[in-house]
Design a protein that fits this description.
The protein is α+β, with helices and mostly antiparallel strands. It contains 25 helices and 20 strands. Strands 4-3-6-5 form a 4-stranded antiparallel sheet, sandwiched between helices. Strands 8-7-10-9 form a 4-stranded antiparallel sheet, with helices on both faces.
Length: 652
């Protein structure tokens, strides 16, 4: 009785799960009871149409027809058992390996860091810090000192005072620990400080943050929308010891007055600016973001409201400026910024840290277990010859379990095979270690990471719907290609009698328009001085006469080819009069190494093409004809049902 109740409960739960799945992702259409869900159709529709995927009634109807035809052909390919052909299965497996190698890293590491960086560059953060440098291996004392100062700050002591007293940042003497506004991405080695800056509540002091410079106590003073980048030009009058401040101010004011009266900024900058780098370019500096120039200059530049706006004269540490805004570049949409961010992310240590976190997550989910004694016994049994790759793996391979993932054993013999591979060689050559134990432990960690990645890659279809869609798309693409090749393309090129019948029925499609028989003259650049003389002589003489006139046994100046060309194509030839005797201009080709000109020798009236003359076009049209017939037969053979209610819900 209990067993029956338990079975009924399992059945009910399964039924509910299936009903829920159908509700969330209903079936749009079926081909011979094989379902195509809305998620699949939306994925392929959006991917194929890109920005034109507007989900309009017309667009969806057109693509539904295309995708239905596609699925009909795939159904035929499966009926032909093309999916069982070993060569095609290997091709699919190879594609999966190639795709899986980068997919997991791109999806879980690169994309995550790109998104994080994009969110951060939307904002500038005003920070102060106190730095405690790490001397050699003694990190504990720096950390303890940071904790001690943190306690003083928590008690309400002044941040600026403590920064001046304790910070190992040389600039703290002047700025009292105040860095000012920063924006992501911070320089290499400062990712933890960047993270603290973008996550720490305003006004609070962080716990010690470790970077390549040491430990930091960080305080976020303020936040603002990111300034982005601005493009400017400027006029600079430098401060000089032999010039009074009043004289410099008077001169910059006179330049400003000239600008206000309609003077040309570019010309005034070239004539008056004392910035030797930018003055010759009309004062043009280009694009810059925050922290490139001193704060006064930056603030004035970013305060200009519109392109073309000119600032009033202002003073900086180097002199007097007038700035003109040329353009402003705000943070662009993610897809535009993505490639720039990705290049920075992948070259930053944060990328490796994120990969380590991913491996840690995989280990936890897979209940990773290892057997250190097996590894240590192996190390003790080996000699330094292992580092030179002059050792052999015994047969049979040792089967002692070295580690486990999801209960699956990874024997010592597999690790030994890994040590013989290219990855291990590359790693050893990079480390250049001569200590056997250190080398094996390093390679063992690489082996663990590699095994974890491969283990996770086996679950890609289960965890990532996009990957499952990609694999289905590629598998069905292979099947479609093979079926179409066998039933359409090969048949069109090999079925000579069928092609002949098709050509006869559609002969009106294949005809010549009016054509010209031409002589194509080629003259080397070395003899271009004779070009006009040759063209003049060719006007009233045959090609044979031209060759006899200018070529000798010792020197060939002219080569002539006979060409036949339709009038439409001949329009591409420079200024060729369409008449007997018509000649084109001389046309340089091959970067001017040769000069060509054409002469029309005879005109041929329009006429019918033979099958031999039209074969390429006829075969292509015959392929289209066979494919249409094939689709018609498939529609009669396989039942297609579309749920119009589900389809109508897709229309926007």
């Amino acid at each position: 009785m209990i067993k029956n109740i338990w079975s009924l409960l399992i059945f009910s739960l399964t039924l509910l799960a299936n009903l829920s799945a159908q509700k969330d992702d209903p079936v749009l259409f079926t081909v011979e009871d094989d379902p195509v869900h809305v998620s699949e159709f939306k994925y392929i529709y959006s991917k194929t149409n890109g920005n034109k995927a507007d989900f309009s009634q017309k667009s969806l109807e057109e693509y539904l027809d295309l995708y239905t035809k596609f699925k009909l052909k795939v159904q035929k390919a499966k009926e032909m058992q093309l999916d069982t052909i070993e060569q095609l299965k290997q091709e699919l497996a190879g594609y999966r390996r190639q795709l899986a190698d980068s997919y997991l890293i791109d999806k879980e590491v690169t994309e995550k860091l790109n998104r994080e960086a994009y969110e951060r560059i939307q904002q500038d953060v005003n920070i102060s810090h106190i730095l405690f440098s790490v001397n050699g291996a003694d990190t504990a004392s720096a950390y303890q000192q940071a904790l001690a100062v943190k306690k003083q700050l928590d008690k309400g002591e002044d941040f600026a005072t403590l920064a001046t007293q304790y910070s190992n940042d040389p600039s703290a003497v002047n700025n009292k620990g105040h860095i000012g506004f920063i924006t992501a991405l911070l320089p290499t080695g400062f990712y933890p400080l960047e993270t603290a800056a973008y996550t720490q509540p305003t006004g609070e002091v962080s716990a010690p943050v470790r970077t390549s410079a040491g430990y930091h106590l960080l305080r976020v003073n303020d936040r603002r929308p990111a300034r982005g980048e601005i493009e400017v030009a400027h006029i600079l009058l430098r401060k000089k010891d032999d010039q009074s401040p009043a004289a410099a101010r008077q001169k910059i004011d006179s330049i400003y007055l000239a600008l206000q009266s309609g003077g040309d900024f570019d010309q005034l900058a070239k004539f008056h600016s004392e910035d030797r780098m930018s003055a010759p370019q009309g004062g043009y500096i280009g694009f810059f973001g925050i922290n490139r120039y001193e704060k006064t200059f930056e603030d004035v530049a970013f305060s200009l409201p519109e392109d073309g706006t000119i600032s009033k004269p202002f003073e900086s540490s180097v002199g007097w400026h007038i700035v003109q805004r040329i353009s402003k570049r705000d943070i662009q949409p993610y897809e535009v910024e993505k490639s720039r961010l990705e290049n920075k992310v992948k070259s930053d240590p944060r990328f490796e840290k994120a990969k380590e976190s991913m491996i840690k997550r995989i280990k936890q989910e897979a209940k990773f277990k290892e057997y250190p004694k097996v590894l240590e016994d192996f190390i003790a049994s080996e000699s330094d010859t292992l580092l030179t790759f002059r050792w052999r793996i015994p047969e049979p391979r040792p089967q002692q379990t070295l580690m486990e993932l999801d209960g699956q054993d990874y024997p010592l013999g597999d690790f030994m095979a890994y040590l013989k591979g290219d990855a291990a060689r590359k790693r050893l050559s990079m480390n250049q270690t001569t200590d056997l134990a250190t080398a094996i432990h390093t390679l063992y960690e690489d082996y663990i990471n590699s095994s974890c990645m491969k283990h996770e890659e086996q679950k890609l279809e289960e965890k990532y719907p996009d990957f499952k869609n990609l694999m289905r798309e590629y598998e069905e693409g292979i099947l479609l290609f093979e079926a179409t090749k066998l039933l359409v393309w090969d048949k069109a090129s090999q079925d000579s009698s069928g092609l002949a019948v098709f050509f006869k029925k559609n002969q009106a499609r294949y005809h010549w328009e009016e054509r010209a028989q031409m002589s194509l003259y080629r003259i080397s650049n070395n003899d271009k001085d004779l070009l006009e003389a040759i063209r003049t002589y060719a006007e009233n003489h045959s090609s044979e006469e031209v060759l006899r006139r200018f070529n000798t046994a010792e020197q060939v100046i002219i080569a002539v080819e006979e060409r036949t060309m339709e009038r439409t194509r001949a329009r591409m030839i420079g200024r060729l009069p369409w008449r007997i005797g018509g000649m084109s201009n001389a046309i340089p080709v091959n970067r001017g190494s040769i000069y060509n000109f054409y002469k029309i020798e005879a005109l041929i009236p329009p006429g019918q093409k033979s099958l031999g003359e039209a074969r390429g076009y006829a075969v292509a049209d015959y392929q289209d004809h066979l494919e249409k017939k094939w689709v018609e037969e498939l529609r009669k053979t396989y039942k297609v049902q579309v749920d119009r209610k589900v389809f109508n819900n897709l229309v926007k």
